[in-house]
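Structure (tokenized):
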């Protein structure tokens, strides 16, 4: 008997729409046999938490065989030893169960589903602590150091760079004092500070003002963990926005390829952001990113 069920994805095609699926199946089905012209019209993938605390992956399908419809269910237990892996490694294995790949489901389908991590009992690897007044200056300087490090990584020939050019004090404090602002230090499971972030949360809209990873622990997936923790902390937000300088290829890669943002606008001296305070420097150019949360 199932105690809880977590639906991952469903195609809501009308029954009998043979052309709904972008691909016809060329491999035998687990329930029944392949028939020439067989095309899927609906499928969904979910996980069941059973009464004994174990989990199973379930895939349901329905198909069109010309004039006849069929369907079937595949149930496969999730091995207990997989829960000792990192969450990302766990998902890479879970997506192989119950013929999920055969039906077009991907790891990204799992990663984008809110609440799944908690459903499986995985704890966030990042803990947030609200920044205190006495820690503000140290927080600012560590963030400036991280931003300077990123700037110099892509501007090795620059004759003069300093942390104030990359992240001026005025920009930092303006974000800290914005309506709905929240500033957090990020700690790993060992209690070591590894970065932090400043966000604003107003209703269903959120803005990521700054996110940084401490110099010395970068390129280890910490930034992505910080972002995922932010999303989990504010499940009510359906639209996130952020900006990053045009030169910071690492950040552009991070937001688009790691966090699921889309570049939607490019601000510069000829096209300034009308909503950005005048004291923010837009002369060099900023990319605006958005992420819409899909339920």
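Design, position by position:
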């Amino acid at each position: 008997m199932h105690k809880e069920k977590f639906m991952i994805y469903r195609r809501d095609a009308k029954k009998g729409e043979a052309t709904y699926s972008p691909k016809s199946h060329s491999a035998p089905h687990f329930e029944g046999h392949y028939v020439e012209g067989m095309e899927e019209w609906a499928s969904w993938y979910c996980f069941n938490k059973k009464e004994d605390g174990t989990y199973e992956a379930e895939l349901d399908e329905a198909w069109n065989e010309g004039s006849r419809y069929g369907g079937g269910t595949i149930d496969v237990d999730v091995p207990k030893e997989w829960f000792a892996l990192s969450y990302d490694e766990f998902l890479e294995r879970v997506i192989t169960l119950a013929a999920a790949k055969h039906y077009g489901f991907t790891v990204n389908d799992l990663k984008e589903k809110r609440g799944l991590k908690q459903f499986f009992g995985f704890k966030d690897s990042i803990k947030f602590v609200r920044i205190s007044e006495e820690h503000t200056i140290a927080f600012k300087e560590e963030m400036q150091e991280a931003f300077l490090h990123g700037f110099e990584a892509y501007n090795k020939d620059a004759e003069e760079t300093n942390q104030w050019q990359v992240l001026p004090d005025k920009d930092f404090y303006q974000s800290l004092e914005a309506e709905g602002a929240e500033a957090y230090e990020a700690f790993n499971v060992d209690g070591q500070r590894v970065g932090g972030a400043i966000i604003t949360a107003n209703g269903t809209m959120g803005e990521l003002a700054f996110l940084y990873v401490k110099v010395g622990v970068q390129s280890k997936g910490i930034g992505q963990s910080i972002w995922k923790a932010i999303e989990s902390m504010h499940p009510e937000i359906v639209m996130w926005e952020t900006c990053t300088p045009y030169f910071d290829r690492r950040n552009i890669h991070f937001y688009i390829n790691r966090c699921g943002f889309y570049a939607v606008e490019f601000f510069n001296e000829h096209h300034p952001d009308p909503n950005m305070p005048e004291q923010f420097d837009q002369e060099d150019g900023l990319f605006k990113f958005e992420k819409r949360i899909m339920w």
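Reviewer-requested clarification: DSSP finds eight helices and eleven strands in the chain. Residues 12-16, 18-31 have pLDDT under 50 and may be disordered.
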